[in-house]
Amino acid sequence: MPKFAAAARSALADTGQRRNLRGATAAAREREAEAVAATDDWDDLREAGRAIGEATLLRLDAHLEDLERAVTGAGGTVHWAADAAEARRVVTDLVRAIGADEVVKSSSATTREIGLNVALARAGVAVQETALADLVVQLGGDEPSHPLSPALHRDRAEIRELFGRTMPAAGPGLSDDPAALAAAARAHLRDRFLRAPVAVTGANFLVAETGTVVVVESEGNARMCLTLPGTLITVAGIDKVVPTWADLEVFLQLLPRASSGERMTPYVSSWTGVTPGDGPREFHLVLLDNGRTRALADEVGRAALRCVHCSACANVCPVYERAGGRAYGPVYPGPIGAILIPQLNGVGGAANASLPYASTLCGACADVCPVKIDIPEVLVRLRGAVVESRRRRPVPTPELALMRGMAWTMGDPRRYETALRRGTKWARLLSRGGRIRRLPGLLGKWTEARDLPAPPSESFRTWWTRRQA
Questions:
Q1: How far apart are CA 174 and CA 186, in angstroms?
Q2: What is the pLDDT of residues 346-405, one digit of tens each?
Q3: Is 84:109 a contact under the CB 8 Å cutoff?
Q4: ∠ Cα 316 318 323 (to 5°)
Q5: Is residue 66 within 8 Å of 209, Cβ to Cβ?
Q6: HEC string of the chain?
Q7: Half-sphere exposure (CA, 13 Å, Cβ side) for 446?
Q8: Are 220 and 268 in contact, with CB atoms under 8 Å apart?
Q9: What angle separates helix 178-195 from helix 156-166, to the nearest 10 degrees?
């Protein structure tokens, strides 16, 4: 994944994507605002969601043990995965043991996080995405651009062209009417649902007291995945746990209003273990850590683990609206991705270290978050972590070297006065019309998007000393 700034610069050049994002996020904001305004106890629900999430994280180990006992007691099997590689290995081994060469899959950010599709393909297993937006991304060899609608960057005409090119059964006369596109996708997927022996899903919530997995969706494809194939594999982060059904009730009111502006998600599917004669004959739950325990140890950063992945923060973010989701990487786009990815993967890499800076810190994301995650606060903390990680490098970055030089200069009055006089002289030589359009060298990064006023011929300190005399 490239640095955010480089990826965003490339995305800004795509005027079609910017137009699609602007229209879609504006419509989403309007729907969500109407749904929130129509809910009298919205603030109380948000506070309840925050409190439940925080309390759950503080006792996550006990809740996970309860969940494992309940799933096992209901005939399911629980697998623990410390990282993405172990999760991929568990799922791949399960599919191989069944002898399957094809799986159907519902939308899941967690499986994208571990790179499951690529791992299964390398093992000779064909993966069929079944959610419409994920199908569009898969057929286009693309990357998702929105937490809720991965194909948000494409319009109807582009999807019609893609379906016509990749779905022979769609026919050359396919319309770009949404109903026609949905019908073409349904026909494309029907046989795959019926013949696939294995399904892979994610999970929105895991109810610890009963071992129940809950998925919310708007198309019904996840429900097909969890009822038709003989083996069901669910991959979920350990942060998806809620202690009780009463706790789940709060989140089922928060999530649809914040994500799609609906009072209730069209499909809410829940399943507990296996039931003879009904649904899958085998159920496997893969519980993924992959950095979540590290995030849990941070008193401020662990707030990101309360996220219910509603996409409300992305819809109000001015940076996301212009840069699009693919600049954040293929897993968690938007403001939540800017705080979650660096915590899961660490801030050591250049790409991860750039994400905490992908924000204006305007606070709009915190205002709309249904579980009250203070995203700007976590961003500031992560920026501090990035700076600290750079201090330990044997060769300092240019920025750090510059800051150290400034600290040395400003640490002594004589050095500071000398630097100020000389700097003012050169800065005035660089100015045109009272503005500095371009600073030299590495400082030119600062003036790529802004001008600087030329400094006055006399500094305040000089003026003050002269006035006192």
A1: 14
A2: 887 777 889 999 999 999 999 999 999 999 999 999 999 988 887 777 777 777 777 888
A3: no
A4: 115
A5: yes
A6: CCCHHHHHHHHHCCHHHHHHHHHHHHHHHHHHHHHHHCCCCHHHHHHHHHHHHHHHHHCHHHHHHHHHHHHHHCCCEEEEECCHHHHHHHHHHHHHHHCCCEEEECCCHHHHHCCHHHHHHHCCCEEEECCHHHHHHHHCCCCCCCCCCCCCCCCHHHHHHHHHHHCHHHCCCCCCCHHHHHHHHHHHHHHHHHHCCEEEECCCEEECCCCEEEEEECCCHHHHHHHCCCEEEEEEEHHHEECCHHHHHHHHHHHHHHHCCCCCCCEEEEEECCECCECCCEEEEEEECCCHHHHHCCCCHHHHHHCCCCCHHHHHCHHHHHHCHHHHCCCCCCHHHHHHHHHHHCCCCHHHHHHHHCCCCCCHHHHHCCCCCCHHHHHHHHHHHHHHHHHCCCCCCHHHHHHHHHHHHHCCHHHHHHHHHHHHHHHHHHCECCEECCCCHHHHHHHHCCCEECCCCCCHHHHHHHHHC
A7: 10
A8: no
A9: 40
- With a pLDDT cut of 90, the percent of the chain lying above it is 62
Q: Which residue has the tokens 């009822």?
A: 227
Rg (CA), the chain: 26
Residue spans of the chain under pLDDT 70: 1-2, 442
Retrieve residue 431's tokens.
């100015």
Contact 208, 63 (CB under 8 A): yes
Helix, strand, coil shares, percent, the chain, to 5: 60, 10, 30
Q: Which residue has the tokens 């699609």?
A: 20
Which residues make Cβ contacts (< 8 Å) with residue 233, sequence separation at least 6?
91, 94, 95, 198, 199, 200, 201, 284, 286
In the numeric block, the tokens 């991959």 are attached to 235
- Which strand (E) or helix (H) includes residue 147? none
Helices 375-391, 398-410: axis angle to 10 degrees equals: 80
d(CA 78, CA 284): 6
pTM to 2 decimals? 0.86
Q: Which residue type, as a one-letter code, is found at position 228?
A: L
Q: Which of 387, 397, 399, 396 is CA-nearest to residue 445?
A: 399
* Spatial CA neighbour of 106 closest among 209, 203, 239, 205: 203
Per DSSP, the residues of 296-330 read HT-TTGGGGGG-----HHHHH-HHHHHH-GGGG-S
The pLDDT tens digits for 94-109 are 999 999 999 999 999 9
